[in-house]
Write a structure and sequence with these properties.
Largest sheet: 7 strands, mixed
Number of helices: 12
Distance between the termini: 20 Å
Order of helices and strands: EHEEHHEEEEHHEHEEHEHEHEHHEHE
Structural class: alpha/beta
Shape: globular
Strand content: 15-25%
């Protein structure tokens, strides 16, 4: 049992710009509720979904109303437990809302035990992007060696996971990225997001994609679907552009009988249930460790410097090599 009495956390007062909506507060820790586990957070990353929830974009305006603590995933150590299956000292991935704080009380359904030797910066990335990539490739699309997948946002954190999974699982990958000259993997086909995609595929004599994963939506997503042949599949799993598809997107999908669907990790979790979710996480973690799947880190920044950390995410300010990791003091 821990003797911690005070919790430091990021408090979101309202929707809006982080500089206006986020404050740092120190609050007293109460007694641990029945069937809850108290975790001392060691590292939490900053995902695009965190920023969308702070600004109150789309579904986040309804499902994550302030006042609240931001953050959707972290890693930490159990310091107190009212549940028999979780014991003090275990290291866990925390997969729930409210991870940008020093201590968090969590339902057992939202904890995943991990090996004690995993690096904090690696472990705190094992849920949102990692599990999304794993479920999309192995469960939703069920990619096989004969499949040719094309993705946009290829240099993003999840794009890099898809790249590594293409090698470990054996499917062919075509990567669309706005920064092809700095793309880190030579095992994939790479094309420039700023140049017509179909023209590049033809000029480079690349295989024809039969499935696409779209992280952006809008104009970029509309361009991506035009690379897919008849009877292909198109899965949207993100809307980084915050824009709708153009009308020609739906016309093309209908005319070529392309199977269009969306994937959101939260909806998949609700559909399959907590036991399947835990099973898939365990299988994914084994695969990631065995195949040395990398999860890149740019730098670690103290939790109380969250404003400085968020400013680094502005693409005009710096080029990041990986995730920004928040570390409680």
């Amino acid at each position: 049992m821990s003797n911690a009495t005070t919790n430091t956390r990021i408090h979101q007062l309202c929707f809006g710009q982080p500089k206006d909506s986020l404050t740092i507060e120190h609050v007293s820790l109460g007694s641990l509720e029945e069937d809850k586990i108290r975790v001392k957070i060691e590292a939490a990353n900053i995902n695009p979904s965190d920023l969308l929830s702070i600004h109150g974009v789309g579904q986040y305006r309804h499902s994550h109303q302030p006042p609240r603590v931001p953050g959707f995933e972290a890693v930490g150590q159990i310091i107190d437990s009212n549940h028999a299956k979780f014991i003090v000292g275990q290291r866990v991935v925390v997969a729930t809302s409210g991870t940008w704080q020093q201590y968090i009380d969590v339902s057992p359904d939202n904890l995943f035990v991990i090996p004690p030797n995993l690096d904090n910066g690696y472990a705190c990335q094992l849920y949102i992007n990692a599990l999304t990539a794993w479920v999309l490739t192995t469960e939703i699309a069920q990619l096989k060696k004969e499949d040719v997948l094309i993705i946009n946002a290829g240099s993003s954190a999840i794009g890099k996971i898809f790249a590594q999974l293409s090698s470990s699982l054996g499917f062919t990958l075509i990567v669309v990225t706005s920064n092809p000259e700095n793309y880190p993997y030579d095992s994939n086909h790479v094309i420039d997001a700023k140049v017509d995609l179909i023209t590049q595929i033809l000029q480079l004599d690349l295989p024809n994609p039969n499935i696409a994963f779209d992280a952006i939506g809008g104009k970029e997503g509309t361009e991506l679907i035009h690379t897919i042949g008849g009877n292909g599949r198109y899965i949207n799993y993100g809307t980084l552009s915050l824009e709708f598809y153009e009308p020609r997107f739906y016309e093309y999908a209908k005319n070529l009988n392309i199977d269009f669907s969306t994937f959101f990790l939260r909806y998949w979790e609700n559909a399959v249930g907590k036991d399947i979710r835990r099973e898939k996480f365990s299988i994914m973690l084994d695969h990631f460790i065995t195949n040395k799947i990398q999860l890149d880190i740019d730098r670690c920044i103290p939790l109380e410097q969250v404003q400085s950390a968020i400013k680094l995410l502005n693409p005009k300010s710096t080029t990041l090599r990986g995730k920004i990791i928040l570390t409680p003091m």
